[in-house]
Amino acid sequence: MGTAQEEDFYKQADGGVCAAQGFTANGIHCGLYPDPEKNDLGLIFSETECNAAAVYTTNKVKGAPILVTKKHLAQTGGRARAVVVNSRNANTCNADGEEKAQKMCELAAAALEIAPEQVLVASTGVIGQPLPIEPIAEHIRLLAEGLDAGNHAAAARAIMTTDTFPKETAVCFPLGGKNCTIGGMAKGSGMIHPNMATTLNFITTDAALSAEMLQKALSEIVKVTYNCLSIDGDTSTNDMVSLMANGLAGNDEITGEGSDYEIFKQGLYLVMMRLTRMLAKDGEGASKLLECTCKGAPDKETAIIVAKSVIRSPLLKCAMFGEDANWGRILCAIGYADAEFDIGRVSVELASAKGAIAVCRNGSGVAFSEEKAKEILGEDEIFIRIDLHQGDADATAWGCDLTYDYVKINGDYRS
Amino acid sequence: MGTAQEEDFYKQADGGVCAAQGFTANGIHCGLYPDPEKNDLGLIFSETECNAAAVYTTNKVKGAPILVTKKHLAQTGGRARAVVVNSRNANTCNADGEEKAQKMCELAAAALEIAPEQVLVASTGVIGQPLPIEPIAEHIRLLAEGLDAGNHAAAARAIMTTDTFPKETAVCFPLGGKNCTIGGMAKGSGMIHPNMATTLNFITTDAALSAEMLQKALSEIVKVTYNCLSIDGDTSTNDMVSLMANGLAGNDEITGEGSDYEIFKQGLYLVMMRLTRMLAKDGEGASKLLECTCKGAPDKETAIIVAKSVIRSPLLKCAMFGEDANWGRILCAIGYADAEFDIGRVSVELASAKGAIAVCRNGSGVAFSEEKAKEILGEDEIFIRIDLHQGDADATAWGCDLTYDYVKINGDYRS
């Protein structure tokens, strides 16, 4: 989770998506879910206009909200004031999807007295069923009236589907002589009904950055955080990460690379890495978080490919569920990773809070205590440490074990 | 399984790997498995020298037997007389692996009175544990003495690991005025101990083909059969397909492309496609065979990529286990397939022996009877039919559902 030095500089903060100055949020039940205890409509608002950036799913099937969000950011040149989001229905593969997504923005804009193109929109849930707009229209004013910096958790709950806990985090750190904050919330591998394991992530900051540098930072950090997360290898149609910066911290606007940009980027990494870990931990049916690091790689790309290949292997995921130090499966997944390196130099360690053991050196197995291995793998956070011994690059990927409950959750009939 | 016309021309035959003239086989228990009822050592033998071809795993971690088989085929210029194979131990990631694999060839060669380089070798089972050579040395003569065309099933059983049934098939057909036969046996997604879902396939034929054309045919057909099979997305270290042709059918040797080559290739396709279907049906924990066809693709490559993307999706595999017509997951997997096409023209049908229903047209859902869908998906062979509506190419991929038993088999502790 970072070095001691880093934790001194980047301090954990409360308040999630409202931790940064000038942001308020809210979440309510509007009626998309039958259960009145379940929030299904959320809103994030900035008291001043923000520079904004976003990254979207690479799936050819794209949810209608993504198309509308893209259009709005293009229209405003990367400026926004609010995010409106619903759960239970993904508003994807519907003939009237874009119209409804646009309508959500208009409803939010009217309640907030801003322009519709200043609103970003996201949806998660069932695919291919028309989104009922009435419950949203009827509750949007109530939602807007309840906007408060204290309501960040209600907003985080409004985006949950099969998530078992809300996901929020924030850090504050000095930037250009000012105190800056970055906060965020996320939802993970959830399903209802037809479902997708959609990942939605909303990040807010009071740092001042140009829209261009904001997009650059977000794209770079997504690559080493969310894109290194694998629950089951399926890529959703609705995945989206947005980043809004209102500049209220008062630092000199970051308009190019340099030390301020690097400081900001590291803060963003910490927020997104922590959310990524929460997403992995809450993977459908997961009983264990798996963190795989690959070091000694000839380049970053190779390190990422190897770490992701291991974290994605269903055989390894089952072995971790069974708490079995089945290193052959790790070596096998390293071996089929689509990158060039010498497999004969690879070493592998398994670790947890209970200690670490070497299981493979120079591509061959080494003797280890099965008893010790069992003790290590009995923990709920497992670290798989790979060293390719052929360079200086490293990367980390996150995932979870494959359990009976994954099959149960995803095999159960929709209705 | 082929058109009526095709079934008239290519007739199903008995005898598996011994269906073709001049081939004998045997399988015995030598003691690698503790259970004396379980065959663990097999042999295939041709009374005359064969032209031979092979295709191997692309995993960087390669079992020692693969290295020795490659070496032998290089030494002989693609000629061979026998295959020796064991189960229970993959002889992979062992310091003395190549030496042991070579020793297996020498033992078989001595018993058969042929040269060691005329023997191909394969192993499947646990990784990273030294292969005990003594049980093999002690039983190799008994194995060779029992060689008989009637013992094909004993050989097929000798390569089983967690396979629940032996896999054999054969076809005969006219070729250059002669009656030719192609037969084969395979083992699939098995595990013992550390394990790999190794696929081993041994094909024999009495047709006469040059080693070069044999390799060409094998490589082409592997691409559209075994390489379109996905049980869990893991690629084993020991996968191997070999093809031996002894020419005893008496046809004019096929030395180039043309109608005889095409006729042979289609026969080879039928044998390997049927074995592939058996492997899918017997996937670890599988309760259903899934067959996904993609037609209307701009090119073959795209059709293969799309069909494999769908067959590999864990979310879809769970839905099929749950007998849930969750077409959103199919469209999602089509959408993230790594190929260029217009998702807005895609249609999808679900089918089985109980009928067919359209679930998606022009990239959007269509209304269908959930009752009818449930009835269709209740069968144990499910067909997912995709039409991209943007070309003439097609492809088929095979897989199985993801069940509690997959997790159980692969999550259980090794010992």
How would you describe the overall organization of this protein?
The structure is a homodimer of 415-residue chains. The first copy, chain A, is α+β, with helices and mostly antiparallel strands and 415 residues long. The first copy, chain A, folds into 2 domains: 4-281, 4-Layer Sandwich (L-amino peptidase D-ALA esterase/amidase), CATH 3.60.70; 289-411, Ubiquitin-like (UB roll). The first copy, chain A, is built from 12 helices and 16 strands. Chain A has helices at 4-9, 64-76, 97-112, 134-145, 152-158, 211-224, 259-281, 300-312, 314-321, 327-335, 370-377, 404-411; strands at 11-12, 23-28, 41-56, 79-86, 119-123, 167-175, 178-187, 200-205, 229-230, 240-245, 289-297, 347-352, 355-361, 364-365, 381-387, 393-400. In chain A, the strands form 2 sheets. In chain A, strands 1, 2, 3, 4, 5, 6, 7, 8 and 10 form a 9-stranded mixed beta sheet that branches. In chain A, strands 9-16-11-15-12-13-14 form a 7-stranded mixed beta sheet. In chain A, a hairpin with a 2-residue loop joins strand 12 and strand 13 (355-361). In chain A, helix 2 crosses helix 3 (97-112), helix 3 (97-112) packs parallel to helix 4 (134-145) and helix 8 packs across helix 10 (327-335). The longest helix of chain A has 23 residues, at 259-281. Chain A starts with a helix and ends with a helix. Chains A and B meet through helix 9, helix 10, strand 14 and helix 12 of A and helix 9, helix 10, strand 14 and helix 12 of B.
